[in-house]
Amino acid sequence: MFVHLYEYQINPENVEDFLHLQADVARIYQEYIACDFLFLQDMNDRGRWMEMNEFPSHTEYIRLMKNINDDSRIAHKWQEVRRLCAGDAFNERSFKTIRTSRDLLPAESFAKLYRYTIDPEKIDQYLHIQADAGSVYDQYIRGASRHLHDLNGNGDIVELQCFSSKRDYDSSMETVNETEQVQALWEEFLQTLTHGEDDITEESFIVHTFK
After folding, report:
1. pLDDT in tens, 32-68
2. Which long-range contacts (CB under 8 A, 24 or more apart) does 176-181 make?
């Protein structure tokens, strides 16, 4: 899968209008291509958003985006979205999905997002560790995950873990993280990082999905 990831600020008083607009945009996109839209609202800064658009492949994305961008409805909606933003700062990056588990959960769920850099020569080891860890976590809590690898050729990873609620996450994580197997896998994971544990960033989000 090919993924575009955007980061921007929305004026808090405009959030409801923003979500209505993005639902309209998602419906237009899906007239052209099967894709998923995921919107993450920072729990510590409700005006900060991340947007993840997932497509079947980069080739398919390139082939169809010209038609989508030529659609006058999209141009109009885009102008409306920009009007709702706080400032002009937009950050955009492209990724490929290298691991996924289950479909994303219903709207208004809870997510943890992690960023770190993997040694490019240890990607296969990293994926093996994540598969083993996923098998353990599945015994304690139901969730959905995406592991995204930056297309710039380095080892930058965005890991997204979605759960039904923050309460479920909090009640389960304390238990699962104390298991010997997860602790051993954590140590193996740290060995795949380019810059060590200090390189890991962790954020919490409210999830809104449009399919």
Report:
1. 877 778 899 999 998 899 998 888 888 888 877 777 8
2. 176/136, 176/137, 176/139, 176/140, 176/141, 179/136, 181/132, 181/136
| 211 inside domain | no
> Does 210 fall in a domain?
no
Cα separation of 41 and 24, whole Å?
18
Per-residue model confidence as pLDDT tens digits over 19-29: 889 888 888 88
Domain span at residue 114? 96-205
- 148 and 68 in a common domain: no
Co-location of 75 and 131 in the same domain: no
Any domain includes 56: yes
The span from the CA of 113 to the CA of 158, in Å, is: 7
User: Per the structure, how many domains does the chain have?
Assistant: 2
At 143-198, the pLDDT tens digits run: 888 999 998 878 899 999 988 888 888 888 888 888 899 999 999 999 999 988 99
52 and 7 belong to one structural domain? yes
pLDDT for res 107: 54
pTM for this prediction: 0.87
Residue pair 110/173 in contact (Cβ under 8 Å)? The answer is no
Element containing residue 51 per DSSP (H, E): strand 48-55
